[in-house]
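hi! just following up on the protien thing from before. the input was this:
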Amino acid sequence: MANEVYPFTIRSILRAGKSRSQPAAFSMADPRRGPGYTQATGTDVPVMWDVDFIFTEAESVAFQLWGVVKLGNWQKPFDMPIRTEFGSLVHTCQFLPDSLLPATETGPLWKYSAKIMARKQLIPQDFKDATDLIINLPDWFNWASMLDVTINQEMPQA
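and the predicted 3d structure came back as:
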């Protein structure tokens, strides 16, 4: 069964009102003798997002209905675009119960805060493929469009 999709008709999370945290994918062993060493604990490490939503009263009603009716009282996972360093990427998320949407009314606006968990940090394959170039080229972002044209259009096929 497909996840519920965050409605495009309702304003998404605030850009300035979100922060990300993530547990480590390794643990550190502390032996009796010698240096400590790391040990992998898994590859699928969830990402926690502290988010804020600000809505008009009408948007707030739509948001509440979506969460209560469509998400089964905020329990079901949903797909939502979240802006990251790599652009806006669709994450599979779930609201966490310990911080479930306290609401504050400020004049005509409603502010909701929540903690959501995404299944993992997403890195697009294009970025993974260009890892060495990105890491080793100073100011790589300013070169990206010129390199794209050079590699894909100007260089002869080998």
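DSSP finds four helices and nine strands in the chain.
The helical segments are 57-70, 125-129, 131-136, 140-154.
cheers
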